[in-house]
Amino acid sequence: MRNYRPLRPSSLTRMIPPSRTAPPSRPNRRRPSAAPLVLGVLGVGGLLILAGAAESKAEGPLRVTGSTTVNVVVAEAAEVLRERHGIAILVDTTGGSTGGVTSAADGRADLGMSSRSIDDRDRARHPEADLREIAIGADAVAMVVSRDVWEGGVRALTADQLRAIYEGRVRNWSRLGGPDLRLVFFNKEPGRGTWEVFADFLYDQADKAPAIAHPEVGANEEVRSKVGGTRGALSFVSAPWADGERVFALSLRREDGSVVAPTAAAVADHRYPLGRPLFLITNGDPSPQARLMIDFLLGQEGRAIVRRHGFVPAATATSSATADKADNASVTAGRR
Fold it and tell me: Which end of the chain is more exposed for a tag (fewer CB within 10 A), N or C?
């Protein structure tokens, strides 16, 4: 985890003006106007609804943008901070992790949310930005299948098998020990941190992955919906979205024949190869409101929220020796 220095200090979001309740017949009596309400829409853009929070005149609302995976944690933290401190917080998931990094770099967000590390491409695109990562936890990217594949006996795949699927060399589950069923692979749309982890695993660097046309999905909920509703489907998603009802998380089979499941313990001690850190991104020192969010998520209450959503809290994500006993449960239990 990279340290930050606690110093100074969207697309579907609308600012709703205050209602005018003063009667028109009394124009000379000036009433203090109510603070504007901030309303987000929880839908395709994944925005958190925050109504009734007073807008800070000094700084305005805290703007947080990016990864749908990190969003579930930040959204719950935002509710707590809104109630406790009366600040307005806007959370937007447009653009995924890359959108979060970009928005933090160009000043459209106070905090970016990312499920991948800042890379050389980010720094090249934003040479003037002082991009910094604050790890709040760790996650497993799970390969998930539809119920018919799971019930057909497929429980684990190797890296070679996944490459063959991605490259279109395997098109039926029967070749992988499963049912005689056409294999439908859903790829992640560009900009998603989950894609970076998947491609890095198969090709060492995401840039080396061949460009192959597949049906694309975006946010985690869309992955679960598409895979759960399609016969013979396979995709990859943040592990807590593998609910064991609509979609099922596969283990990865290693070269020695052993298998490792996407569990919190396997992420914490780095046995599961598709693990990844979850970040908040700042451009330079965080603002006071951004620092409030960061400190909250790194504290005891925030770590409990991270764990409750099926992730490994930051303090336990760096060493298996410090992994909490509660973190040994499967990551996939997080959203059941």
Answer: C
For residues 195 and 175, membership in a common domain is answered with yes
Q: Look at residues 247, 268, 289 and tell me which one is the last residue of a structural domain.
A: 268
For the stretch 80-119, what's the b/e string if a residue is b when 16 or more beta carbons lie within 10 angstroms of its beta carbon?
ebbeeeebbbbbbbbbbbbbbbbbbbeeebbbbbbbbbbe
What CA–CA distance (Å, rounded) separates 217 from 235? 9
CA pair distance 251, 263, nearest whole angstrom: 10
Classify residue 38: in a domain, yes or no.
yes
In a domain, 1, yes or no: no
Q: Which of 47, 46, 89 is nearest to 292 (CA)?
A: 89
User: Are 110 and 132 part of one and the same domain?
Assistant: yes
Closest to 200 in 3D by CA, of 113, 273, 134 = 273
Query: Which tokens go with 71?
Result: 């969003």
**Is 134 a residue whose pLDDT tops 60?**
yes
- Domain extent at residue 186: 140-268
Question: Token digits for 308?
Answer: 């409750």
What tokens were used for 330?
Answer: 């499967």
**Which CATH number does the domain housing residue 283 bear?**
3.40.190.10
pLDDT digits (tens, 9 = 90+) for 152-170: 999 999 999 999 999 999 9
Total domains present in the chain: 2
Residue carrying the six token digits 């005689």: 180
Residues composing the chain: 336
Establish if 47 belongs to a structural domain: yes
Residues 213-263 have pLDDT tens digits of 999 998 889 999 999 999 999 999 999 999 999 999 999 999 999 999 999
Say if CB 119 and CB 125 are below 8 A apart. Answer: no
In DSSP terms, 249 is beta-bridged to 144
What is the per-residue pLDDT across 30-75, written as a single tens digit (0 to 9) for each?
A: 333 333 323 333 333 444 434 333 333 346 899 999 999 999 999 9
